Input
Amino acid sequence: QKEVEQNSGPLSVPEGAIASLNCTYSDRGSQSFFWYRQYSGKSPELIMFIYSNGDKEDGRFTAQLNKASQYVSLLIRDSQPSDSATYLCAVNEEGDMRFGAGTRLTVKP
Amino acid sequence: EAQVTQNPRYLITVTGKKLTVTCSQNMNHEYMSWYRQDPGLGLRQIYYSMNVEVTDKGDVPEGYKVSRKEKRNFPLILESPSPNQTSLYFCASRPGAGTEAFFGQGTRLTVV
Output
């Protein structure tokens, strides 16, 4: 059974801090990796995607990928209360996309 | 506006009464999928389709049917709903393999 695993949290950080979210995956053939943010009762929305090993930065967000370790992470710098949500890691597999269970992040003012 | 549209948004039904949740996308995407989301379990794939008339099972297909007769539509059919199918359902579409998924607004289904 192919898996995408995330720490369910909740992860709590103070406003202005760095939030670090982690994800591991089991399918070595996966080539595309995504981070989605989901507010309660709403649809997931894409934050970032990453295809190559290393770091990819977009504003306050940095995605990191290590295919050898089958590990992908998301860093949120200068965390804001509006970042409080569940973050879903998604991995492309043959056929379609597999999601982790999500990490719930709370940013406290 | 590019979007994925699901209907209905909310549905309460009784055990055994057949229902269909519609999904339509206007982006000419090849891939479409259905997911269900339950507390603590994340998004689990029910069925997916890589093209017209091509569908395949995801991780939790039991009790569901789909069809892809047209590129834009991918309805989810529950022939005989049961209470364990009470969940939040999302339809998603993607341009192709390895690309991001665009989600519909979700359908909250309650089976009593």
